[in-house]
Amino acid sequence: MKMSDSKVESTVKITPRLDDAELISKVKQVFHKQEGSFDEGEIQVHSDPFPHCYIENFLSETDDLTSADDFIGKMGKELLDSFPYTLKQNDLFSFYQTDELMDNKLLNEHTTTGEVTKLAHFSRLLKSKFLPWIRESTGMDELTDQVDMFSAQYRESSYLLCHDDQLENRKLAYVFYLSPPGWNEEDGGALDLMDTTVSSSSSSSSSGMLYQPNDVVKSILPKRNSMVIFAVSEKSFHQVSEVLSKDKTRLSVTGWFHGGICGRSSTDLLPSHPLAPVLTMHQETGVDEDIVSDWVNDFYLIQAVQKNIQETFEESSEIHLPTFLDLEVYERVVAALRHLSEVKTGADGGERMFFERQKLANSHNYDRIRPKYYQPPLTTTVPKMDYPEDCAAHLTTIQQLFKLFSSQQMFTLLHLLTDLDLDPGSNDESSSPTAKKLKLDNDERTTPICRCQLRHWKSGSYTLLKDLKEANFQGKKTLDLSLYLGVQQDWSEAHGGSTHYCAEDEEEPLIALIPQANSASLVYSEEHCASFVTYINHRAPGDFFELRIIYYDQDTA
Question: What stretch of H or E contains 487?
């Protein structure tokens, strides 16, 4: 069906350039056979990293008196004036969105002059003209008449993190841009397409392959009057980069064409967070026997204070402990982290020596200290390794920090603050410390353990929960400790970096931990509960570190 054969009275039409036989042939080759490309400047069709088509000047005039740009301006005004936009915010995204528009009664209302609204005309073009063209050009004969449509506003700091759009029976996604003219790279808000790595997996998709996002290989700016379509599959990983402009709003109409059976299976293998290194509880000897009193604020060692904290924790299952470390110790730890985080290695000096990037775009993105530096040293002096001499004292400080939080004294202090049984042998006088047993993951261990990561958070960092439901809700009860280090005083929840705890099937987070310098947060994480760290946007006042430790409640181990 040709775009120029429209029977709908209109002021604009879909560009007749889509009627070109060569273009239709190339689109079918790309979408049906997933190979080849076509690039004529304003129209681009590519199979890599997954089948997609970009069309500039999607709407064109029907006569010399009609301006497509004027039509788009009026359509945008209709959207902003007639349809409420609600902030949509979770682990994956933060932007403003309308409800479904196709079935909205306001869509078919007429203007005061009796004309059909611009949005109604656009929706009719989608269903009566664009959908038949898509069926013919892509070879997707299974597409039904179902077309979703909603509008999204991405204001400053809005974003949509990496995902693949697989849900229900979505087959093809589309985005039409009504953004202001002159949008450029410095404004952000690009549609980023990612390539994938692939491996065999019997528990993944129907293809028997597991696809995971790798790098952004193409960025499409939200140019006014442009249309993007792409095939939805296990390879269609994409994101909307954070909008950086203070005065431009990325406005779009977007949705999906449906057909057949699509969407992620419940048996698909889901991404997982990096496994935190294990630290074994140890008993202090010699110079280390007063490690807690030397490092922790004396206030938290007072019996009456401990009792009050325990009562509060038992009532709410969470508590925030400000100024947790001794101030001199805290400053020494932050100085050590700042120094170590800047040490580079490699011929080009592009790799950090003590920190490593942990990134799987549809799961997490942050840096952490390399696991080989986690285990506390056996002596007060760190063995000489291949690192600059000025790092030795700083590394010793950080390894002593790990030693503090895996010490028996710390297990005991946390028990006094929470009344949780973290060390099952601590109250058993008949048990030798070396004979203590606990059962975790069906394994017997001689001493309690904790899992620990020291993470570096900065603009662009995050962890996701949405696609990790089955991987995160594992039915273990834990005490989660987050100690925030080097946080700027003016840091707020609006900057991101907060840890949100969610219960299974709950829409709103149960707890939100906002980073505060030298604050230790304790949270009792019960079965069917998981957490994520919100995306840190470009307005954040710097970066910070977080010591994240998971202790296991032995009453439920």
Answer: none
Closest of 377, 357, 379 to residue 367, by C-alpha: 357
Angle, alpha carbons 32-33-39 (nearest 5°): 85
List, for residues 387-418, the tens digit of each pLDDT value: 788 899 999 999 999 999 999 999 999 999 99
Predicted confidence band of residue 104 (pLDDT cuts 50, 70, 90): confident
Structure token digits, residue 430:
């008949």
- Write out pLDDT tens, residues 471-516: 444 557 899 999 999 999 999 999 999 999 988 777 688 899 999 9
**Residues β-bridged to residue 280:** 449
Closest Cα partner for 119 from 196, 271, 12? 12
C-alpha closest to that of 257 among 169, 167, 163, 166: 169
User: Is residue 450 a contact partner of residue 550, using CB atoms and an 8 Å limit?
Assistant: yes
pTM for the model stands at 0.89
φ, ψ of residue 455 in degrees (nearest 5): -105, 145
Is residue 277 within 8 Å of 450, Cβ to Cβ?
Answer: no
Query: Strand 364-369 relative to strand 238-240: parallel, antiparallel, unpaired?
Result: unpaired
Render pLDDT for 273-305 as a digit per residue (tens, 0 to 9).
Answer: 666 777 777 665 544 568 999 999 999 999 999
- Nearest CA among 3, 38, 44, 2 for reference residue 22: 38
Give the CA distances from residue 291 to residues 148, 403, 413, 423, in Å, rounded to whole numbers and listed in that order: 61, 9, 12, 18
Residue with tokens 């689109």: 27
Is the Cβ–Cβ distance between 463 and 364 less than 8 Å? yes
Q: What is the 3-state secondary structure (H, E, C) of 69-101?
A: HHHHHHHHHHHHHHCCCEEEECCCEEEEECCCC
**Residue 45: how many other CB atoms lie within 10 Å:** 23
What residue has token string 């939200």? Answer: 222
Nearest-angstrom CA–CA distance, 152 and 163 = 17
What letter represents residue 90's amino acid? N
Q: Hey, what are 197's tokens?
A: 């790595």
Q: Where are the alpha helices (DSSP H) in 371-407?
A: 392-405
Q: Which two tokens stand for residue 4?
A: 């120029």
Q: Dump strand ranges (E) for 271-377.
A: 278-280, 318-321, 344-345, 351-352, 355-360, 364-369
Q: What are phi and psi of 505, to 5 degrees?
A: 70, 10
Among the listed residues 491, 467, 302, 285, the one whose alpha carbon sits nearest the alpha carbon of residue 378: 285
Q: Is the peptide bond before 377 cis (omega within 30 degrees of 0)?
A: no
- The residue whose two tokens read 């010399």 is 64
Residue length, the chain?
A: 557
φ/ψ (deg, to 5) at 518? 60, 30
